[in-house]
Amino acid sequence: EHTVKRLLNSQTALKDVKDALLQIQPEMKDNLKALYLYSEHGVNPGIFTIDKDDLLIPLYDGVLYVMSWDRGEEEKCKHKQQRFVDKVKASIPVCWIGESKSYPDPGHGKAAIQEALYAATYSQFHDKRVSDYEELRGYGLLLEVRNREKIREYRKKIFEPVIQYEKNNNLELLSVLTLYVKSGGDYKHVADALYI
To answer: What is the pTM of this model?
Structure first.
C-alpha cells in the first residue's frame, strides 16, 4: 500500500512505475487495468480470489485491484473484471467501483490507478454502482489539467473530429464555441456577433 501511495504522490517516470509494480507483483503481465472499490463500511480484501499475476491491496478506504493479462487475452480481462464485480455485488450492498482504461504496459500503472480512483469518486457522487473513467468526459480533463498528455488525448478525442467535420462541411463550429465561451454562455451575444 505504501509503495502505491508513494507512486501516486510523486512525479515518476514510466520505467520507475513499471519497476515499482513489478516489485510488488513480479508476475504481472504486459497489459493492465485498475479497479478501485470504495465502501463507507470498509472492504475486506480477503473475500476476493485473484489470479497470481494480479494485484489486490487495501488503498485509502477501499481496495485496489490491478488486473494484468498478455496481449490477445482481452477476454480474460473481461472475465476477471466481471468476476470481481459479481463478488462485490453479492457481498457489499453499498459501494462504488471505478474502472480505468486498459493500458499496454505496467509503466502506465499510475495512470490506471488514478483513473480508477477518479471513476470511483464519480460513481459515488452520481449514485452509480460502477463507473468507467471514460464516463468522466470533461470532468476527467479538469482532474488532469496538469497532465499535458491527457490534455492532448482529450483534444484528439473531442476536438479533432469537430475540426474534421468543420472542414468537410465548410462550417465554423469552433469559432462559434469560442464566442460562446468568451461571452460566458450568453446566447444573445453570440447571436448578435454572428448577425443572427
So the answer is: 0.71
Backbone angles phi, psi at 41, to 5 degrees: -100, 10
Compute the distance between CA of residue 49 and CA of residue 155 in angstroms, rounded to an integer: 39
Rounded-to-integer distance, Cα 67 and Cα 35, Å: 8
For the stretch 145-169, what's the b/e string if a residue is b when 16 or more beta carbons lie within 10 angstroms of its beta carbon? Answer: eeeeebeeebeeeeeeeeeeeeeee
Q: How many residues does the chain have?
A: 196
The answer to whether 144 and 151 are in contact (CB under 8 A) is: yes
Beta strands 130-132 and 96-99, pairing class: parallel
End-to-end CA distance of the chain: 59
Q: pLDDT digit of tens for each residue in the chain (196 aa)? A: 677 877 777 777 888 888 888 888 999 999 999 999 998 888 888 889 999 999 999 988 899 999 999 999 999 999 999 999 999 988 888 899 999 999 999 999 999 999 999 899 888 888 889 999 988 876 665 665 555 566 567 667 777 787 788 889 888 887 887 787 777 777 788 888 887 7
* Furthest CA-CA distance within the chain: 65
